[in-house]
């Protein structure tokens, strides 16, 4: 890889040059840098490597991890219905014709056509960062969790955006049940069995519903715990949950959750969670050892370090062709981009930052990048939103698709079928389907592997330098 090599100046990469005898030299492939390996990054690179002609493009993908996480399956991974390895897609295997750089882009100098990237090797070498040159930039770093300045949140909050957080939360919930089962202190027991989820969007509702299913099932295997001993609380600042599935299905979801003895607090905010006490805006004080924060996301910080045009919300201003507005050779889509919705009735409407749009935008974006290199017309992105599906736990769900409303088992089945069709690679589809079939035949796994988060603890104890992993 030619890190640090200048490109894009003078005749430029991808232009024909002539020697002193006038003979045409071979056209150098255009370097396409894809920042981000999520929905947009993975699918864009996948379409580029499939559709680019031999020698036409060199594709480089930069991502902090060597895999893409299929986030709609995180709740099921947390509940133990799917193995964590099967909700991630290895970039090196899937993008065999691309160069994968595991690192985090910290800045982009589009005038110089270079991206600054922090890699593990650069940190070990003490060089800090490397510069990667490019001809075409696809900026799709996605979003990060939006943490508000709530006292105690940084110390006690648990996120739910990565596979590591999902598995960590599963282990944590089961460990709290172990604590409750073995303590004689009623205050410790109550705090251990109280689980507070903040945020009534997809992530919060699906995570709560799946983990509540799993925890109440696991309770039957504890001699001194009953399912009714567990207290799950959902805190939402607005007056509804799951707005994507419509008002009617949102109200049904609230009734369904409350029917399962889940305390749903609408129009309520988290004011503080210091000292492991969740203080809500309605005056409630809930001692809890588990506070899951899923109250929204914000654009990736690297966008502010690019000098590219941004909206008031910090997303990249894009055209319907998925070009960054007013900038040549720069493209974006997904969570990072504000893309006009050409199918909306109201002018100025932007496409929702969700997977349904991201996957389809990636296909159009890849085609437009190649069309630009070939001097052909670009295609506008158009997709009418077909609806949404959401899981409320095993065999339960809500959906609104093409104006039709579904609930219960049909909605749950549609949720699984849709996301199985969307998860990348046949390999992952087959593994997930096999796990679902096995889960229908055998009982749930209720084992906590929390010690995986401290893999050296046992050795440190043996060496006399640490504590037992269960004590940490």
Automatic annotation (TrEMBL):
Keywords: FAD, Flavoprotein, NAD, Oxidoreductase. Residues 13-22 have a biased composition (Basic and acidic residues). Gene3D superfamilies: 3.50.50.100. SUPFAM superfamilies: FAD/NAD(P)-binding domain. One of its GO terms (molecular function) is NADH dehydrogenase activity. Residues 1-23 are annotated as: Disordered. It holds the Pfam family Pyr_redox_2. It comes from the Bacteria. Belongs to the NADH dehydrogenase family. This is NAD(P)/FAD-dependent oxidoreductase. It comes from Streptomyces morookaense (Streptoverticillium morookaense). The lineage of its organism: Bacteria, Bacillati, Actinomycetota, Actinomycetes, Kitasatosporales.
